[in-house]
Task: structure prediction
Amino acid sequence: MSELAQAMILTDRAAAKVRKLREGEANPELKLRVYITGGGCSGFSYGFTFDEVANETDTIFTNDDVTMVVDSLSFQYLVGSEVDYVESLQGSQFLIKNPNATTTCGCGSSFSV
Result:
């Protein structure tokens, strides 16, 4: 596992939401896993899930007591990104501000490089 403090940012709002969801699951060991998959209207889609384990090849980021993990394949597309949590008229969601994305879809859940 490697840790690169400046390579990705988990905002305070996102960390607060992860804490709240973690409390709802009654499992303080849960980590936010951020990943990308092929598909979506722009080529790649962002994904979020909880995981209890960080794999050896994952990159780890922290915001206080909250841990975010990113697999090595996804990390190459997410370097420099910020993971935030927003509530708007369109709903509540984790949102990635990705400086590597050349185009994104209207909802912000898919991108291309």
Summary: The mean pLDDT is 86. The longest helix spans residues 12-25. The chain has two helices and ten strands. The chain has one domain: 2-106.
